Amino acid sequence: MYMVIRKYSKVRSVADAARRAKSGVGEILRQSRGFKSYHVLDAGDGVGIAVMIFDDRESANAANAKILTFVQASLPDLDLGVPEIAAGEVLVNIEPNGSSGIK
Length: 103
Fold this sequence. Notes:
By secondary structure, the protein is of the alpha+beta class. 34% of the residues lie in helices and 36% in strands. It has 2 helices and 6 strands. It has helices at 14-30, 57-74; strands at residues 2-8, 35-44, 47-54, 84-89, 92-94, 100-102. The protein has a 4-stranded antiparallel beta sheet with strand order 2-3-1-4. Strands 5-6 form a two-stranded antiparallel sheet. The termini are close together. It comes from Bradyrhizobium yuanmingense. This is Antibiotic biosynthesis monooxygenase.
């Protein structure tokens, strides 16, 4: 599995940004090969964090390019700025059903 984390540091309203992005980003992700999950959190003080999980790096990169285009075209008034991005292979995955994976 491959994870991409985006941290936006100067968001006027993380809740509004998440609500407005939900349908557009959600549609892009649902149509993306290898998509596993997407999560957004409000870390407070104008910090929003988005986490995407995919089967592999190629799937993540392809979806990421489409999402970036969507955000720039559809949410310019939110002035999200350039996010810090961390990405890499998931080394440990623990799920509530007792299954886990360790690389």
